[in-house]
Amino acid sequence: MLVAPSVLSADFGNLQRDVEAICNDGCDLVHVDVMDGHFVPNLTIGPVVVSAIAKCATKPLDIHLMVENNTFFVELFAPLKPEYISFHIEEEKHPHRLIQKIRSYGIKPAIVLNPHTPPECIEYLLEDLDMVLLMSVNPGFGGQSFIPSVLKKAKKLNELRNKINPNCLIEVDGGVSDKNIHALKDAGVDVVVAGSYVFKHASKKKAIESLQI
Ligand code: DX5
Ligand code: ZN
Q1: What CATH number does residue 206 fall under?
Q2: How many domains does the chain fold into?
Q3: How many angstroms is it from 212 CA to the middle of ligand 2?
Q4: Can you tell me the distance from the alpha carbon of 157 to that of 152, in angstroms, rounded to the nearest whole number?
Q5: Run of H or E including 197
Q6: What distance in angstroms lies between residue 5's CA and the mean position of ligand 2's atoms?
Q7: pLDDT per residue over 82-139, tens digit each?
Q8: Is 62 a catalytic residue?
Q9: Ligand 1: does its nearest atom lie under 6 Å from the Cβ of 114?
């Protein structure tokens, strides 16, 4: 299981310290939540802060867009060369075109599904994707409780991707901890995002290791 700590739960007064800490403590990706105050009722960080994160991160960035105008934000963040950019299917009329655009920058495209969105709706996009991110909370805030129905959804998506594109990873975001990591693994999940669990733990290293099962 790959682990992507969410910087949203970091201490923003000590952002460099916290980003360096998770990288030194062995995380696999650095998850960056970009919220625009429209698609979700919260506002986070833009390219100035994300480029500061990119400078001190020694692990690849996983940028999760929670925004209304996906194309605008993809163009804004592409120069930072993240490993992944993920966008919400609920907010995109032309997902196939946007996948091609992300790939044209040499970045791996990923699609995010909100808790209510069925995995079948991306069946015909799976062959073009590097990752699908399943939200296990309603997007917008860290520290919320895990929604258990995502396990059933992950199992369904696992079957679909094994048939269509076994290279496409399954990521889960929201309320992840040592309490649900084994169930996530059993459901076929490859990558977990963890914000409050990692940053509130007495040892970030131990928290990360406890999820790398
Ligand atoms: C929620 C974000 C998550 C969040 C996860 O909209 O996408 O990445 O930071 O935080 P925890 O792990 O605390 O639920
Ligand atoms: Zn996220």
Answers
A1: 3.20.20.70
A2: 1
A3: 18
A4: 9
A5: helix 196-200
A6: 9
A7: 999 999 999 999 999 999 999 999 999 999 999 999 999 999 999 999 999 999 999 9
A8: no
A9: no
